[in-house]
Amino acid sequence: MTHPHRQISAETLKKIERAQSGTARAALLGISDGLVTNVSLILGVAAAGASAEIVRIAGIASLIAGAFSMAVGEYISMQGQVELLESVLEVERKELHSHPDNAKQALREVLINDGVEPETAAAASAEVARNPAKSMAMYARGKLGINPEELGSAWQSAISSLVMFALGAFVPLIPWFFTSSNIAMIASIVVAIAGALAIGGYLGIATTGRWVRASLRQLLVLILAAGATFIVGRLFHTQI
């Protein structure tokens, strides 16, 4: 059990902020999805015997469509989440305003759960209850697990998702602008593997610190997805 008076390190706080940030989540998901999606499509189309020009066109089309699709989906998802949390906070805000005694009791329980002595918690909750904004913020964090100041931004998440998906999708497409055939295919695989390892490594360092495990996990996902489309393109000679 965490000691109530233990100081949380700045690094831990940053990790929590990253985990709760919709923008950071959208960026990480976007670049990972872009990389896996486009290298899979590129290998599938190339394995079917398509020319370099067709591969480029398919890759660019996938990049544009995927980036905007991710952005729209992220915006709708994030906006719905923000509106839901705002509605919950509004209901609780009205409840605390209508029943001040219940508000004090709720704040007292929050403080006690944080390790504050009952007598001190009673005095502190009465003091905090005089400020509606502070009392609501404390109640939301302690009882609801919601930080009213960090509900997220739908637009930021959408833009982050769009840009990072496009970036991830562009990486395996780069070789096809300079060469073609098997050389471009091998180059796409190499840069995609490097990208997957980098993404997984960053995720591992930013969370558990186990970057090797996270890198290999990301690489496995890439291999499974890209391998499936490559096999389909090769066996059925079908451009995916």
What key attributes describe this structure?
240 residues; mainly alpha; 80% helix; elongated; disordered N terminus
The rough form would be described as: elongated
Count up the domains. 1
Order of helices and strands: HHHHHHHHH
What's the story with the biggest beta sheet?
none
Distance between the termini: 52 Å
Account of the protein in words:
By secondary structure, the protein is an all-alpha fold. The protein is 80% helix and 0% strand. It has helices at residues 10-20, 22-47, 52-98, 100-113, 118-128, 132-144, 154-170, 181-206, 211-236. It starts with 9 loop residues before the first helix and ends with a helix.
How do the helices and strands line up, and which of them pair or pack?
Layout: H1 10-20, H2 22-47, H3 52-98, H4 100-113, H5 118-128, H6 132-144, H7 154-170, H8 181-206, H9 211-236
